[in-house]
Amino acid sequence: MTDISKQITMVQQKIAQAALRVKRDEQEIQLLAVSKTKPVSLIKQAYQFGLRHFGENYVQESIEKIQQIKEDNDFQDPIFWYFIGPLQSNKTRPVAEHFDWVQSVDRLKIAQRLNDQRPTVLSPLNICLQVNISGEESKSGTTLSQVIELASQVSKLPRLKLRGIMAIPEKTNDLQQLEKQFQALHNIYRELQNKYPQVDTLSMGMSGDLESAIACGSTMVRIGTDIFGARN
Ligand SMILES: *Cc1c(COP(=O)(O)O)cnc(C)c1O
């Protein structure tokens, strides 16, 4: 079996160095381990190495893994599950019932359903609005011009807690172009923070671009490949 503790240490060092470079406290940046397509055995390794925050993209796959982990005595501490994939409205219920966060909310209909389906015994579901920062048609996410309005609607839903925004920038080798997108996201994030004091999460940065994201103010990086290896 592959040993992923080395990869985790490397990612943690990368985060610390990126923070240091721009004089930020590394504690401000949460590492979200993206375990989509990867087996519970690898999640267990990451857990045993101290990680508690995991991101998943596919409803059926993630619910099966979450159930399996719930019944596994090797997992004693609570794990925080983040849904970060595209979400269809007919699949919101299991997500509302099993996740702690949804970072891919891009329209009111999805938010409304998650709100209505969140079990009352659980605390409100933490929400990030996904922003389509590059405007690419293939990308999900709300547009820049609509995000403030969507935030206002989501903030009124009692079973949801608006925590911030999430985005995947357009792939580019042009660092300036990349940072322009991250900077624009940081600006919206600040605007939301001014309106909603509970907003504390700017989820941006993946395996290939976490340094730039941290330089531009990211508070959460979502790392899959660099921790768990390439996906098929
Ligand atoms: C898969 C995925 C990631 C992780 O990407 P890597 O490049 O493997 O680190 C992060 N965020 C989202 C939304 C994803 O779907």
Task: Provide an overview of this structure.
With 232 residues, this protein is of the alpha/beta class. It has one domain (4-228): Alanine racemase (TIM Barrel, Alpha-Beta Barrel), CATH 3.20.20.10. It is built from nine helices and eight strands. The protein has an eight-stranded parallel sheet. α4 crosses α5. The longest helix is centred in the last third of the chain and has 21 residues, at 175-195. The chain starts with a helix and ends with a helix. Bound molecules: pyridoxal-5'-phosphate (PLP). The site of pyridoxal-5'-phosphate (PLP) has 14 residues, from β8 and α9.
Q: Name the beta content range.
A: 15-25%
Reading the helices and strands in chain order gives HEHEHEHEHEHEHEHEH
The total count of helices amounts to 9
CATH superfamily (homologous) name? Alanine racemase
The biggest beta sheet reads: 8 strands, parallel
Widest β-sheet, arrangement of strands: 7-6-5-4-3-2-1-8
CATH architecture: Alpha-Beta Barrel
Total separate domains = 1
User: Average pLDDT value?
Assistant: 96
**DSSP, total strands:** 8
Distance between the termini: 17 Å
Report the bound ligands by name, code or SMILES. pyridoxal-5'-phosphate
Task: Provide the low-confidence segments as ranges.
Answer: none
Q: Which bin fits the share of residues in helices?
A: 40-55%
Structural class: alpha/beta
- Could you say which overall geometry the principal axes of the C-alpha atoms support? globular
User: Regarding CATH, which class?
Assistant: Alpha Beta
Kindly report the CATH topology.
TIM Barrel
Rounded to the nearest angstrom, the radius of gyration is: 17 Å
